[in-house]
Write a structure and sequence with these properties.
- By secondary structure, the protein is α/β, with parallel strands linked by helices.
- The chain is globular.
- α7 links the parallel β5 and β6.
């Protein structure tokens, strides 16, 4: 009888110990669950001045969220013509630049307003016109095509906004020794997407980067590419930081991160594959040194 009472008492003691341990574990778990997580630092802010083609093509919608997530940065994108984007850099009004007018870019770098200047990607320019192609331009000789457009006074729609595309167009007119003027030459002062819409409405010809054309062409069924493939139609994009030694208010830390991000292998692969599924070809080609 005493032995039985001893066993019962021992069993009760064990239950009491286990219950206490369980309560401790539960309390510890509850305490851990209630402990607030460490607050995530607020994102820093960076301004990117870039050309409208990187926005109109949809590329920025893919790569900017990648950069923001990886670096806890909030990017304010200002998509304007390359000339205006470069001007923002010379005034210290942007932290990083992504543009496509090499000669103008070099002047900004040489003046010391931008540093860490790197090639990112390229595509090409194409001449687009009405499907009926009343001017009869074709092939890959863009200078010959411009001469014919001027001779026939075929409607030509220019961006007229000092963008990289506008700079390229004006350089072609200069090579052709022509100063375009008259009712047939229309300047929109707008971005590439809007200028293509004007060309469609006026049944005119327009120089565009291929990426914007491919991304917008489904809404431009009255237009087609009429001249392409010329060796002088290459369209190169560069990225750079605004120089903090000359403009002390810029966010140089994140600007450098952005330049490094744009030339990183993973980002370059994303650029290379952008548009392939939807358009059957890349809108931009990565720039491998």
């Amino acid at each position: 009888m005493k032995k039985n009472r001893f066993v019962i008492a021992l069993f009760a003691l064990m239950l009491l110990v286990l219950s206490a341990c369980g309560n401790t574990t539960s309390k510890d778990s509850a305490a851990k669950e209630q402990k607030p997580a460490a607050a995530k630092p607020a994102p820093t802010n960076m301004i990117l001045a870039t050309t409208t083609s990187t926005q109109d093509s949809g590329l920025l919608d893919v790569i900017i969220p990648m950069f923001e997530k990886q670096n806890n940065v909030k990017v304010k994108v200002i998509a304007v013509g390359t000339g205006e984007a470069l001007a923002m850099g010379t005034k210290g009004e942007a932290d990083a630049l992504l543009v496509h007018a090499p000669a103008a870019e070099k002047a900004v770098v040489d003046a010391g307003d931008a540093i860490n200047y790197k090639r990112v990607m390229y595509n090409d320019f194409v001449l687009v016109g009405p499907k009926e192609n009343p001017a009869g331009v074709s092939g890959d000789d863009i200078v010959a095509a411009f001469k014919k457009l001027a001779e026939t006074k075929s409607p030509f729609i220019s961006r007229g906004d000092d963008s990289g595309t506008n700079k390229k167009e004006l350089a072609i007119w200069t090579t052709a020794n022509i100063k375009p003027a008259g009712d047939w030459y229309v300047s929109t002062g707008q971005g590439m997407g809007q200028t293509l819409q004007v060309a469609a409405e006026k049944k005119g010809y327009v120089l565009t980067d291929r990426a914007t054309w491919l991304s917008q062409s489904k809404n431009l069924d009255t237009l087609k590419i009429v001249v392409e493939g010329g060796k002088d139609l290459m369209n190169i994009y560069h990225v750079m930081e605004v120089n903090p030694e000359k403009h002390d208010k810029v966010n140089s830390t994140d600007a450098k991160k952005f330049v490094d991000f744009m030339v990183a292998p993973k980002t370059q692969d994303v650029i290379e594959n952008f548009g392939k599924k939807e358009f059957g070809r890349s809108l931009f080609i990565k720039y491998t040194e």
